[in-house]
Design goal:
Helix 5 runs parallel beside helix 7. Helix 1 links the parallel strand 1 and strand 2. A six-stranded parallel β-sheet has the order 3-2-1-4-5-7, with helices on both faces. The chain is built from 13 helices and eight strands. The protein has 294 residues and is α/β, with parallel strands linked by helices. The protein is globular and about 50 Å long. The protein is 45% helix and 11% strand. It has one domain: NAD(P)-binding Rossmann-like Domain (Rossmann fold).
Length: 294
């Protein structure tokens, strides 16, 4: 029997990325701790995690909430590494931007402090987002990890319901890196673009949902088509009512072109891409069909 390589904590265990991480960690001989939000309103089906090979002996599930940073301490205790994946995703604007940003920052700092206090965590991997890079008034074809999105610019382009998410990810990554440098914590941030592909969690992941927006609209996916039409109508009304309607209308037609994101640093580290876009979308579509979303 393969020796246990140690315990690793993955926050936000019911999400797309986190659930795949848990499965891979178990496959590679690690024990895994993961967190899910507590309370009846956040009741999640975790059977897809507990039924993973090796989970009965090597997976522990803890309740934790970013609104209560200290709630992550138990899950992190005794771990040698932490993958911080959990993040508030509210594309329906149920909460004010300030609330989302504060919860994301406070929760992340609480997790980093728990890592320091544990005396066992050797490395933290924080899942950031390409939205922390590409949104600014800089006109370039390609950006890399040396660029930062401008929060004021994101607010100025009124990027529909994605703005609070982009702002929270940008602000949180900056603060997390500053904290890690100040306290000597080994922190690595990963900056993915849209994440798409097959998913093992039962819930339709937001990133896959967004990446497949046109496919879902075309297939008249329940609820999405109406929401898309409502947002388009709202934008047209804003353009009409604006005193500078001609400029707003032209901007709406042209759209915002985001720069490409360079994978050079990733490739230089030895990483190799195994799947192309065709495979990623084909498998995502097949997974959606199997789970009844298409």
């Amino acid at each position: 029997m393969e020796a246990d390589k140690g315990k690793v904590c993955v926050t936000g265990g019911t999400g797309f990325v986190a659930s795949w991480l848990i499965m891979r960690l178990l496959q590679h001989g690690y024990s895994a701790h993961t967190t899910v939000r507590p309370g009846p309103e956040h009741k999640r089906d975790v059977s897809f995690l507990t039924s993973l090979p090796g989970a009965s002996k090597k997976l522990q599930i803890f309740q934790a909430d970013l609104s209560i940073p200290e709630s992550f301490e138990s899950a992190i205790k005794g771990c040698i590494g932490v993958f911080h994946v959990a993040t508030p995703v509210d594309f329906e604007n149920k909460e004010p931007e300030e609330v989302i940003v504060k919860r994301t920052i406070d929760g992340t700092l609480g997790i980093l402090k728990a890592c320091l206090n544990s005396k066992t965590v050797k490395r933290v991997v924080y899942t950031s987002s390409a939205s922390t890079i590409v949104f600014s008034d800089k006109v370039v074809d390609t950006m890399d990890e040396g660029f930062w999105s401008n929060v004021d610019y994101i607010k100025s382009i009124n990027y529909f319901t994605f703005g609070p998410y982009m702002i929270s990810k940008t602000s949180t990554e900056k603060i997390a890196l500053e904290f890690a440098e100040e306290h000597g914590l080994d922190l690595v941030t990963v900056i993915p673009s849209f994440i798409v592909g097959p998913f093992i969690c039962p819930k339709f992941p937001g990133s896959v949902h967004t990446s497949m927006a046109m496919i879902l609209v075309a297939s008249k996916e329940k609820g999405y088509s109406k929401a898309f039409q409502d947002k388009s109508k709202m934008r047209k009304e804003q353009d009409y009512e604006s005193q500078d309607s001609k400029k707003r209308s032209l901007k709406g037609i042209e759209g915002y072109k985001t720069p490409g994101v360079s994978p050079k640093k990733l490739l230089d580290s030895g990483f190799e891409f195994k799947y192309g876009l065709d495979e990623m979308f084909d498998e995502a579509i097949q997974c959606c069909k199997e789970k009844g979303y298409l």
